[in-house]
Amino acid sequence: MMKKAIVVVSFGTTYQEGLRLNIESVENKIKANFPEYEVRRAFTSRIVIKRLAARDGIHIDTETEAIQRLEDEGYKEVYVQPLHVVGGEEFDKIKKIVIQYIHGHQKAFDKLVIGRPLLYYTGQEDRPDDYVEAIEALTAQLPNVESQEAIVFMGHGGVHPANTAYAALQMKMEEAGLNHVFVYTVEGFPPLESVIAKLKKRNIKKVTLMPFMLVAGDHVNNDMAGDEEDSAKSQLVKAGFTVDVYLHGLGENTKIQDLYVQHLKDAMSQKAGHGMCKH
User: Fold this and answer.
1) Domains of the chain, each with CATH number or no CATH
2) What 8-state DSSP symbol labels residue 129?
3) Residues assigned a catalytic role
4) Residue 271: what pLDDT?
5) Distances 266 to 50, 62, 100, 173 between C-alpha atoms, Å
6) Rounded to an integer, what distance in angstroms lies between the CA atom of residue 118 and that of residue 236?
């Protein structure tokens, strides 16, 4: 019988609890949905991998090592499902290695396909609207807000062009009628300052901060909810808002977990796939 595997690739985390609640939970759901596949874990963050090895003696494969190991073990059908939020720098790492195997390693795999991250397609040309689906999944965790309350999501952001996804998410939130939900990023656009300006304009008094990240790790505990004066919580308090923090990553949301499973199913059926496939 042909050996089949799924590599579940995330950025990774050094928070053991975060790993269990946000990454393992998605992996377990994938295992339950695809019992005939071997499911492997990989991280794209070299720093996280190094820290886990040094601190806990745990070895976790990079995306390259995971695929190489499957080749060495004779797997022929491999699907790679990223748990990244946008198709940015970390997703590019995975894409690069998949392309290398498809074009370089002769006959390594009969099939090698990469799934898509959480936010990728926007609904045109018969493609799904990942944003609308993610927003629907998010509504399950949103608290009821009064007229002078708002919810502010923190994304990662960065210089990669794919990080415009967060601005698109804000527009899609508005289109979905979520006028009290705002999105900012730690390292990009939209910045927190522009969200604070919007909150003031709306006469908002109370804000609930939520991570738009797979894991509630370092960024969430420090940049978003920390007590340092440059954290989002501190900046919002200083600007006159009452602040609640929600310390749960997206990976804890069962509906978000289901979306990753769906993206994997799409990759398997070649629906909404990348065309990055070797048959």
Assistant:
1) 4-121+253-278 (3.40.50.1400), 142-247 (3.40.50.1400)
2) B
3) 156
4) 64
5) 33, 24, 22, 24
6) 28
Q: Count CB-CB contacts under 10 A for residue 38.
A: 15
Annotation-wise, does 180 bind a ligand? no
Q: Tell me which residue has tokens 């960024």.
A: 219
For tokens 């927003």, what's the residue? Answer: 135
- Strand partners for 245: 209
Residue with tokens 């993206």, as numbered in its chain:
263
Beta-carbon contacts of 93 under 8 Å, excluding residues fewer than 6 positions away, are 44, 63
Both tokens assigned to 255: 């509906």
Q: Is 156 annotated as a binding residue?
A: yes
Helices (H), the chain: 16-18, 25-33, 46-56, 63-72, 89-103, 130-139, 165-175, 192-201, 218, 232-238, 254-269
Q: Which amino acid is located at 227 in the chain?
A: D
Q: Does pTM top 0.90 for this prediction? A: yes
Q: Tell me the per-residue pLDDT of 91-132, one tens digit each, with 9 for 90 and over.
A: 999 999 999 998 886 678 999 999 999 999 999 999 999 999
Residues 71/40, Cβ–Cβ less than 8 Å: no
The answer on whether 187 is annotated among ligand-binding residues is: yes
Tokens of 31: 């295992």
pLDDT of residue 102: 87
Closest by alpha carbon to 115, among 98, 132, 129? 98
